[in-house]
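Task 17 of the worksheet. Students: predict the tertiary structure of the chain below and write it out as structure tokens. Keep your answer in the requested format; marks are given for formatting as well as content.
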Amino acid sequence: MRIDLHTHSTASDGTDTPAELVRGAAAAGLDVVALTDHDSTRGHAEAIAALPAGLTLVTGAELSCRLDGVGLHMLAYLFDPDEPELARERELVRDDRVPRARGMVARLQELGVPIDWGQVARIAGDGSVGRPHIASALMELGVVETVSDAFTPDWLADGGRAYVEKHELDPFDAIRLVKAAGGVTVFAHPAAVKRGETVPESAIAALAAAGLDGIEVDHMDHDGPTRTRLRGLAADLGLLTTGSSDYHGSRKTVQLGEYTTDPEIYGEITRRATGAFPVPGAGGSLRP
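Model answer:
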């Protein structure tokens, strides 16, 4: 089995629609794909309707969190999307995205960048606007060469010149809320230092003690020594280890299925979940 547990669609900051994403996952030879848009489950229905036979969809979301001033992302799998407390927190985060993005556009303008809100809104479309959309605008303007180049202290990284804070969950609350909704939590790319400051291993240990299920190890932002270190940490803390592409369509160079999760780990995630269940493909078309 080939299993990719971290992807994004146009429901947040990916460039593929949910239907395009699941068709692409099937074409890439995946058996299982998780749709984990930022703080949103809005793409799930479209993905399920288009799900090709032979492909299983894991419903999820990537929750925006902050601990001691450091931003981090929590992957939540197979939770009940209608559980009211978790749904309310996701809505608070989403509602803060537009004012925050407008604030970053204003800061970039103050820095002399000829960006405007209309450009960012066009790029975001119907998705939940976020920093990757602003990064794409900076690419269009020739300010940076890649989306990743925009996530530096010069521009959009945490604490960067154009950075603006938004409402984010405490990760301990995120774990509690996801578990109350029957879901499973995995700390996304915990050592992605190129994105900015990361939390120390002592914080990961505290999250594990609070019920964190796993950490994402095999990821494009983790080099070989980092993956080895994280596997050792996970073993010490009794955490599951996952691998995922963090696919964003054309917004990043990584491809669907470039990094994958061991089938036994996937099986354990599904065993722990009670809020929702993986959705097997019912023969949706491979073509639009």
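Marker's comment: Strands lie at 3-7, 32-35, 56-67, 70-77, 184-187, 214-218, 240-243, 279-280. DSSP finds eleven helices and eight strands in the chain.
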